[in-house]
């Protein structure tokens, strides 16, 4: 079974946002493998271990994203494909251009039986690239997947939906699975794994050569930090007094009850 | 002038408020709006549903009623929407950012060769130019997405846009046939808690949320009791989810749900930056914590220094007196 896993390098979740000119100022920001992508890598590796095959990790971004790819290679992916762009390209690429480029890269490297990704990247928070990539490849997909079974060429996935229930979707392979927290427990890279990762092959595809840079349909401007809240009121007293103060404030001042 | 098609969702015989907010938002900006609803056995409720969307400014309601649509079906929804969108030359396809809207709209953007902006919280329209404001990095900053051209695809976070006054009008019902997909995928069932009487976390107007200080799954009952009195959904911090007290579907924060209720009550939640990111657009935040120094107090409109095991039941009793 030939498996691809799409990963993104994102700022760490601890990041405090500082803005540059129409972008996040990444000076001093620590970059990590997008947390949801860890679940995608783990599931790709588990699937390979159960079925035999190979796992190719694919990432779009400037040179620094190689670190996120090495994390995935250290966890056990077999090889990598780096869709290389400049920092400026990354700033202007919208979900459409990214998904179209990823689809082209996957076509060039494939065909793949299964493609994994995280359900969303924690920086863009778009939750759109996986579905768009699948649509460009004309294959079925499932989002926010918390459970997956592969059997006889059919993938059965579950995802939580509004209200706390779970939807069960069956897909004929090839299919794309966008992983959510809860799908598995990602393994840590072992020391030998980290050593081996340095030797693994990473092929470079130039983003510009995929011809998707000029298909962007959305541009972003007017970047803003949310307004800081004024200090609130702090109540002290017995539980009954606290409850009275809060209910009174919510009813008469905030008027939300 | 732009023309929008809004995918609206039905629940218990009514169109969800989150969907109606989107209809109203476009109408309010001078955009001509039609709505489309999918389901199995909903044709009988068409008149009521048409009133719901008409009240917020929709001209037509396309009703796609088919036995195959007992569950949400990504393929059939997508194919039917593409046809409806292209048949009447719409410019904008929109929905609320619900579990259907989030899953489906990106697929439509790819199929319609359109740009997309998701989970948006505001919009501006000027002739043929659509701009939508959206959060990044779990709300740590925002930016405006400007569509270079139509068609545009956009979904909106619940509770951000508001509803308009009931216009008293009903939309014209247009019965529409489902267009089947490739058949390569199918939602076969929905398991579990479908009948929960509490509101969806994503769309809830009020949320009561608990942290690791709850100490056990059973203790969440204290918060559920409070939630039921004020009609709130129940959420949790990552620490409470990781400790196994509640499922991940209840997690609010950077690797959970982003919520914008009018009231967010945090019990025993210290306020890690990842949690604050998920709830900072809440209108009013109340924090109850024994630790005076907890960062959550810096984001709270009202804070109480106290033991949640005493304060939560006292609040439940106090709310009962006035509700």
Written description of the protein model:
The complex is a heterodimer of chains A (257) and B (323). With 257 residues, chain A is of the alpha/beta class. Chain A has 2 domains: 2-215, 3-Layer(aba) Sandwich (Rossmann fold), CATH 3.40.50.620; 227-257, no CATH class. Helix content of chain A is 31%, strand content 31%. Chain A has helices spanning 35-51, 66-75, 87-92, 95-109, 129-137, 191-197, 239-253; strands spanning 2-7, 9-11, 19-20, 23-24, 31-33, 54-61, 79-84, 114-118, 141-145, 147-151, 154-160, 166-172, 175-179, 202-206, 218-224, 233-235. In chain A, strand 11 and strand 12 form a beta hairpin. Chain B has 323 residues and is of the alpha/beta class. Helix content of chain B is 28%, strand content 30%. Chain B has helices at residues 17-28, 46-55, 74-87, 99-111, 220-230, 238-242, 273-279, 296-299, 308-322, and strands at 3-8, 10-11, 14-15, 32-39, 58-65, 92-96, 115-120, 122-126, 129-136, 141-147, 152-156, 172-175, 185-191, 206-210, 233-236, 263-267, 284-289, 302-305. Chain B is globular and about 60 Å long. The model of chain B has no long low-confidence stretch (mean pLDDT 95). Chains A and B meet through helix 4, helix 5, strand 9, strand 11 and strand 12 of A and helix 4, strand 7, strand 9, strand 10 and strand 13 of B. Strand 15 (218-224) of chain A pairs antiparallel with strand 10 (141-147) of chain B, so a sheet runs across the interface.
